TrEMBL record:
InterPro entries xref list: Rieske_2Fe-2S, Rieske_2Fe-2S_sf, Rieske_Fe-S_prot, Rieske_Fe-S_prot_C, TAT_signal
The keyword Transmembrane helix is annotated on this UniProt entry: no
Domain spans labelled Rieske: 126-192
Name of this protein: Rieske Fe-S protein
Source taxon at top rank: Bacteria
Protein's organism: Noviherbaspirillum suwonense
The keyword Cell membrane belongs to this UniProt entry's keyword annotation: no
Keywords attached to this entry: 2Fe-2S, Disulfide bond, Iron, Iron-sulfur, Metal-binding
Source lineage: Bacteria, Pseudomonadati, Pseudomonadota, Betaproteobacteria, Burkholderiales
Needed co-factor(s): [2Fe-2S] cluster
C-alpha cells in the first residue's frame, strides 16, 4: 500500500535536482495539484521538503529499511567486500532522516583502503565509500556489489560503476559516473563530509 511519505517523496522526485531554491519554487507551484491528488488529505509543502533536502556535511547515515530504528551507522557496520548497505542521511538536530526522496539514498561499500585510487581516498573513510544508489542511466536502483570487479551494479541494463575509481562507469549504458558522497568519521560514526559529487539520478541533457 502506498503511504503518505511515499506519495510525498514521489512529488519531490519528479522535480529536477536543480538546487533547493528552484526546487522550492516548483514544489510550491505544484502544491495545489499535489494536495488534490492525495487521498490522505492536506500535506503542507514544508513537510514535503523537511525530509527530502539533499545530504549535507554533518549528517549521519542510518539504515534505509529500518524507519523505526535510527541508529547512526559505524565503519564496522559495513562488511568488507560484502553486500552494499543502503542508508539515508540523518539530521541529528531535527532527528529527521532525509528519506523523503530516493535521490538521497546511498549505497555504502567497504573495500581494502589501500586499493583505492588517490581521488577515491579523499572521500572514503577506513575503506568505506558512499555512492548514490540511483543509476545514472534510467534511474533504477543500484543494488549489487560485484566484489571481484569492485563495482556497484544496476540490474536493469547491467551498468557497472568502479568504486575504486570514484564511481567511474566500467560497463553498460550509463552515460555518467555514479555520484559519490564524501565521508568522515566522528565518535566512530560515519558522517557526511559534503554534498554529492554531482547530481544524483538521471540528468537531463540539452
Ligand atoms: S537503469 Fe541502470 S543500467 Fe539502465
Amino acid at each position: 500500500m502506498t503511504d503518505r511519505k511515499t506519495k510525498t517523496a514521489a512529488l519531490s522526485d519528479l522535480v529536477p535536482d536543480t538546487g533547493l531554491e528552484q526546487r522550492r519554487t516548483v514544489l510550491r507551484a505544484a502544491g495545489s495539484l499535489a494536495v488534490a491528488s492525495l487521498s490522505g488529505g492536506f500535506i503542507p509543502i514544508a513537510l514535503a521538503e523537511e525530509n527530502s533536502s539533499r545530504p549535507k556535511a554533518g549528517h549521519r547515515l542510518v539504515l534505509a529499511d529500518e524507519a523505526d530504528k535510527r541508529v547512526p551507522l559505524q565503519v564496522s557496520d559495513i562488511p568488507l567486500n560484502g553486500k552494499p548497505v543502503f542508508a539515508f542521511p540523518y539530521d541529528l538536530d531535527s532527528k529527521t532522516a532525509q528519506d523523503g526522496s530516493r535521490l538521497n539514498k546511498v549505497a555504502l561499500v567497504k573495500v581494502d583502503a589501500a586499493s583505492l585510487s588517490d581521488d577515491a581516498k579523499k572521500f572514503a573513510v577506513d575503506g568505506v565509500l558512499a555512492f548514490s544508489s540511483v543509476c545514472t542511466h534510467q534511474g533504477c536502483d543500484v543494488t549489487e556489489f560485484v566484489a571481484k570487479e569492485h563495482a556497484l551494479m544496476c540490474f536493469c541494463h547491467f551498468s557497472k560503476f568502479d568504486v575504486l575509481k570514484s564511481g567511474a562507469v566500467a560497463a553498460g549504458p550509463a552515460p555518467r559516473d555514479l555520484p559519490y558522497l564524501p565521508l568522515k568519521v566522528e565518535k566512530n560514526q560515519l558522517v557526511v563530509a559534503g554534498g554529492f559529487s554531482s547530481t544524483p539520478g538521471v540528468k537531463k541533457t540539452g
